[in-house]
Amino acid sequence: MNSFAQFMTVLLIFVIVLAITYFVTRFIGVYQKTQGRTGNIELIESARISPSVYVQIVRVGSKYVALSVGKDNSSFLCELSEDEIRTGTGTSASLSGGSFDSILNKLKGRINGEDSVSGLEDRQDEK
Hints:
alpha+beta
């Protein structure tokens, strides 16, 4: 009987620690999200061109610039106009936007061999 009580106590402490971890993680995520949106610098897109070098498009104030960012250095590549920036196209942009449900349905469609775009539209029409 004593070992059962110890097991239940450890299980209860484990659940409490998990709940505290969940709420603290959500709080930190919301805090960082609001901190990132209040500044004048925003990372628009990033692409890896080698294991340690990235090309990044960054909005600084109202200007867009392309940067090469490596392990030891960063280089200015060029300035871009707002017309040259495409948003919402490509795999990474389409996966990062939208609700979790729509992304999950899109991925399920790919796994089942359906056309992901038409399969997603059909599911949304059913709702």
